[in-house]
Inverse folding.
């Protein structure tokens, strides 16, 4: 993000004192925006302001930004899921060294990818029965509906519009709405689709339990056909790792804690918080999981930390409000 833009976001988000609160505030802003009430300012610019705020959070501390996905699953599913997806997309775009304007367009698309099915998405997050035929038809139409809604709201950015239209297409032609294949799909749209599915797997909902992190990653890459799209699969794995920040893990010495920082795919830095009897340590301690005695042996559910941890113990002031 250019310095002038960053200064604008910093000023407009002066009440946000941490990376976690920047992300949570972005959810609030997106919720307010998607009420789609007329006369509330330029839609495109308001989306852009949210993008800049998320990019600022990722620049300041990407580990905390990712941890919000696992440890802040309150509020409307449709909103937090779009913000979660946008965070993952922005971090992968940064790793790609994508030019700033294209990166902004792709993150904007991630934020608005489900504009055409917000009410349905909320209903499905509470639904324990299979989709009805009408629901399935609406789901298959929502990329087209969303693109047209964006056009009516003044969006003319072709990359943004194409990514919204194509984010459910698959390289093998098995996606929707147009069953595009191979090079007919934009790479950026496939990236959004992969991030969309990954974040959905980590979310608690009535019709599924949140997936343990490494399982979700592997299942997402397989479902996406990463053998035919090795570049995207590699970028995604390199950005998140098998154990992304915020993942709750048990170590070989019996301690358990939170992945603090991505170090390499299989051996991140972990802050141990509990001993082998599941009692709080006197002081949190960072563990290098590349060492055999601190190797990760088990993934635990994020819910196991509810009410037991202040995340400032792991990341300091950047995690305030999480």
């Amino acid at each position: 993000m250019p310095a002038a833009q960053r200064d604008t976001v910093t000023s407009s988000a002066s009440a946000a004192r941490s990376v976690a609160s920047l992300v949570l505030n972005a959810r609030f802003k997106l919720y307010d925006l998607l009420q789609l009430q007329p006369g509330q300012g330029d839609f495109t610019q308001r989306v852009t302001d949210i993008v800049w705020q998320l990019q600022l959070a990722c620049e300041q501390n990407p580990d905390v930004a990712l941890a919000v996905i696992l440890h802040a699953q309150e509020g409307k599913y449709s909103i937090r899921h779009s913000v979660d997806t946008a965070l993952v997309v922005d971090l992968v775009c940064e790793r790609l060294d994508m030019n700033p304007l294209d990166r902004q367009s792709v993150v904007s698309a991630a934020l608005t990818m489900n504009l055409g099915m917000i009410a349905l998405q909320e209903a499905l997050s509470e639904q324990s029965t299979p989709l009805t035929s009408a629901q399935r038809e609406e789901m298959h139409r929502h990329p087209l509906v969303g693109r047209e809604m964006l056009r009516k709201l003044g969006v003319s950015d072709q990359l943004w519009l194409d990514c919204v239209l194509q984010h459910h297409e698959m390289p093998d032609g098995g996606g929707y709405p147009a069953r595009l294949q191979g090079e007919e799909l934009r790479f950026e749209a496939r990236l959004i689709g992969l991030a969309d599915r990954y974040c959905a797997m980590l979310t608690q909902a009535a019709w599924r339990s949140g997936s343990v992190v490494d399982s979700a990653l592997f299942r997402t890459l397989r479902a996406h056909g990463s053998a035919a799209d090795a570049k995207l699969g590699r970028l995604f794995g390199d950005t998140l790792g098998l154990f992304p920040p915020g993942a709750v893990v048990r170590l070989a010495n019996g301690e358990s804690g939170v992945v603090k920082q991505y170090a390499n795919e299989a051996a991140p830095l972990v802050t141990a918080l509990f001993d082998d009897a599941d009692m709080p340590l006197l002081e949190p301690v960072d563990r290098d999981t590349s060492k055999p005695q601190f190797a990760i042996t088990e993934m635990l559910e994020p819910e196991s930390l509810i009410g037991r941890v202040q995340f400032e113990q792991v990341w300091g002031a950047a995690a305030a409000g999480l």
User: Anything to note?
Assistant: Residues 287 and 313 are 14 Å apart (CA to CA). The two ends are 24 Å apart (CA to CA).
